[in-house]
Inverse folding.
C-alpha cells in the first residue's frame, strides 16, 4: 500500500509536531541516489525476526541532515521520539522485498511537507466531536488522510492529559475509504495499549504526589505561567508510558498495518456490468453472514444453527466449480456431454427438460459423490437464482424447498410426488459386474439408471435453448470448454429475454395481447412456444432482488416525475 503512517503530538511550546513516521519503499527504488538508510552489512544490532518482516537498525545520517535543515527550531524532549544519534528502524518484507522505514520524519523533503500539513490539520481544525476519534480529510494535491486523535494521561500536563493523533496519508482516496473499518479496528488496539499503559503511570504518580491539590494551593501569575509550564511541557511519550521499547513496538505495529492494508484489498477487472448470477451470489452471501451472526448472538443458537445448516449448504453448494469435481470420492460425472453419453440421448433430453422447466429432480443412489457430481453438472443449465439443492438427505424434502434432491436408496417417494408431472426420479443401482473393461466408462460399468416421471407432455419440441444446447453437445468437434461457453452465452441471451418480459408484464402490467407480441419479438413463439414461455416464467424467479428493486424504483420515479 502506497501510504505513510505517523504519530503526531500537540506540544504546549511548539504546537503540532510529528513524533514518529513509518513509510514503505517499494523495490526497485526510482532514484538510486536517494537510497539512504540502507542497512549497513554486518550491522546486526537490534535485529528482530518477525512474521514475514526483518527489523534492523537504519543508518540514516544523511536523512537527519536533510530534515534538520527543514525544521524551524531544535525540538524539545516532548517533540522528539528517537535520540539524534539513533539510526531508526527498517523492516524488510521477505515476500515482496518492500522496506518499511521508521524515524521521526520521512526521508524525502516532499513527504515531510505532506506529513507536516496532515499533522497540523489533525491536531487543529480537522477534529471530530469530542476531539477523540477518527476523521477523514485531504485533497488530490496534498494527499488524503485518515486521522485518529486521542488523549494520553500526564500528571504534569495542562488538564492532566496530552493530545496525540495517528495519521495515515495516501494518495488513493477510494482505497483509504474502503480500508476505514480495518484501519479503525487496528488503530484502536494500538491507541488503547498506549492509553492503558500511560494510565498506570499516571495513577502511580498521582498516588505519590497528587497534582490537583498542589496546583490549587500554588500561586498563579500570568507573567510567569509560561516559565512554570515549560519544564513540564517536555515530557516524552516514553516517559509517559515507561515503555523502554516503545518506538520499536510502534515501528512493528505501523509496518504490519501498512503490509496488511496493502494485501487485504486487490483490484479485479470486470468486463461490463455484473451478471444476474453475480448479483444473486452477493445477495446470498450477505444473507448467510447476517443469519450466522444473528444466531451466534442468540441463546441456544447452536441447535438452531444445526437446523439451518442444510440451507447454508444450499447456498454454498452452487459455488462449487466443475474443476473441483475431482475432489469427490468415487466415479463422477465430469460434464454435460459425459452425462449425456452415460444416460443416453433420450433420457438426457427428458432430464434436462425437467431441469429447465423448474420441476423437482430427484436422484436415489448409495453413492453421494455421484449424485453431487450430477447436480453440479445439471445446475449449470440454470441461473444461480433458480437453484435450490439438497445434495443428500435421509428423508424426502418438498419441491418448494429444493429443485435438486439427493436421497439414499431406501427413502420412499410420497405418492403425490410419484404421480406428479412436475417431478422426475432417477434411480441409480449397482450392476453385478466384476470389474471395468479397458476403454469402458467406469460409471456405465458400475451403475444402471432408470428415469421415471408422470409427465405426459412431449419433451422433444422445446425449449429453444435446449435444442441449441443439444446441437453443441452432439458436435464432437467442439471441446467441453467450448460447449460450456456456448451454454453461458445461451443463458445470458435468455436471461435478457426474462428481464424484458418481467419489465413488460410484471412491472408495467401490460395485457395478454401485448405480452404475446413481446414474446414474438423475443423469438419465444413458434415451435416449442409453450416450453419457451414456461422457461421464461420460471427463470423470472431467479432474478436478483437488486434488479427487481431497481426496476420498481425506476417505475415509481417515472410516475412521480410528471407531477413534480
Amino acid at each position: 500500500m502506497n501510504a505513510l503512517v505517523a504519530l503526531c503530538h500537540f506540544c504546549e511550546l511548539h504546537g503540532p509536531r510529528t513524533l514518529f513516521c513509518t513509510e514503505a519503499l517499494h523495490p526497485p527504488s526510482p532514484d538510486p541516489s536517494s537510497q539512504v538508510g540502507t542497512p549497513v552489512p554486518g550491522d546486526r544490532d537490534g535485529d528482530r525476526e518477525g512474521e514475514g518482516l526483518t527489523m534492523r537498525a537504519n543508518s540514516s545520517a544523511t536523512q537527519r541532515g536533510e530534515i534538520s535543515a527543514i525544521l524551524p527550531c531544535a525540538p524539545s524532549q516532548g517533540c522528539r521520539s528517537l535520540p539524534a544519534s539513533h539510526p531508526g528502524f527498517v523492516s524488510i518484507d521477505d515476500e515482496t522485498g518492500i522496506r518499511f522505514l521508521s524515524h521521526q520524519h520521512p526521508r524525502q523533503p516532499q513527504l515531510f511537507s505532506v506529513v507536516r500539513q496532515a499533522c497540523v490539520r489533525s491536531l487543529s481544525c480537522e477534529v471530530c466531536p469530542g476531539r477523540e476519534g477518527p476523521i477523514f480529510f485531504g485533497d488530490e494535491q496534498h494527499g488524503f488522510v485518515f486521522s485518529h486523535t486521542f488523549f494520553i494521561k500526564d500528571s504534569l500536563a495542562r488538564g492532566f492529559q496530552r493530545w496525540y493523533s495517528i495519521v495515515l496519508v495516501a494518495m488513493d482516496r477510494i482505497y483509504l475509504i474502503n480500508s476505514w473499518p480495518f484501519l479503525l479496528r487496528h488503530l484502536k488496539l494500538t491507541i488503547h495499549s498506549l492509553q492503558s499503559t500511560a494510565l498506570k503511570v499516571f495513577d502511580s504518580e498521582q498516588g505519590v504526589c497528587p497534582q490537583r491539590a498542589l496546583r490549587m494551593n500554588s500561586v498563579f501569575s500570568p507573567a510567569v505561567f509560561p516559565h512554570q509550564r515549560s519544564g513540564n511541557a517536555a515530557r516524552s511519550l516514553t516517559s509517559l508510558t515507561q515503555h523502554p521499547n516503545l518506538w520499536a513496538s510502534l515501528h512493528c505495529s505501523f509496518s504490519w498495518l501498512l503490509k496488511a492494508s496493502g494485501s487485504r484489498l486487490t483490484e479485479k477487472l470486470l468486463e461490463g456490468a455484473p451478471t444476474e448470477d453475480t448479483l444473486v451470489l452477493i445477495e446470498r452471501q450477505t444473507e448467510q453472514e447476517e443469519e450466522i451472526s444473528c444466531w451466534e448472538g442468540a441463546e441456544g443458537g447452536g441447535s438452531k444453527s444445526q437446523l439451518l445448516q442444510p440451507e447454508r449448504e444450499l447456498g454454498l453448494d452452487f459455488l462449487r466449480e466443475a474443476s473441483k469435481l475431482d475432489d469427490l470420492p468415487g466415479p463422477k460425472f465430469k460434464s454435460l456431454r459425459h452425462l449425456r453419453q452415460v444416460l443416453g440421448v433420450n433420457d438426457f433430453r427428458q432430464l434436462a427438460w425437467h431441469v429447465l422447466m423448474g420441476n423437482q429432480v430427484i436422484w436415489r443412489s448409495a453413492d453421494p459423490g455421484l449424485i453431487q457430481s450430477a447436480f453440479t453438472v445439471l445446475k449449470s443449465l440454470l441461473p444461480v437464482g433458480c437453484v435450490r439443492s439438497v445434495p443428500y438427505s435421509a428423508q424426502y424434502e418438498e419441491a418448494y424447498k429444493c429443485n435438486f434432491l439427493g436421497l439414499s436408496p431406501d427413502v420412499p417417494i410420497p405418492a403425490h410426488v410419484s404421480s406428479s408431472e412436475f417431478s422426475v426420479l432417477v434411480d441409480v443401482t449397482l450392476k453385478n459386474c466384476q470389474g471395468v473393461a479397458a476403454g469402458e466408462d467406469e460409471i456405465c460399468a458400475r451403475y444402471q439408471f432408470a428415469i421415471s416421471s408422470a409427465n405426459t407432455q412431449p419433451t422433444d419440441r422445446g425449449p429453444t435453448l435446449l435444442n441449441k444446447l443439444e446441437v453443441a453437445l452432439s458436435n464432437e468437434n467442439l471441446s467441453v470448454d467450448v460447449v460450456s461457453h456456448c451454454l453461458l452465452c445461451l443463458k445470458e441471451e435468455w436471461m435478457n429475454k426474462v428481464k424484458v418480459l418481467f419489465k413488460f408484464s410484471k412491472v408495467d402490467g401490460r395485457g395478454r395481447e401485448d405480452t404475446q407480441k413481446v414474446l414474438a419479438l423475443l423469438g419465444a413463439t413458434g415451435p416449442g412456444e409453450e416450453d419457451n414461455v414456461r422457461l421464461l416464467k420460471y427463470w423470472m424467479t431467479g432474478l436478483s432482488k437488486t434488479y427487481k428493486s431497481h426496476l420498481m424504483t425506476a417505475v415509481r420515479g417515472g410516475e412521480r416525475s410528471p407531477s413534480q
Remarks:
- Residues 32-53, 55-75, 299-323, 559-564 have pLDDT under 50 and may be disordered.
- DSSP finds 20 helices and 14 strands in the chain.
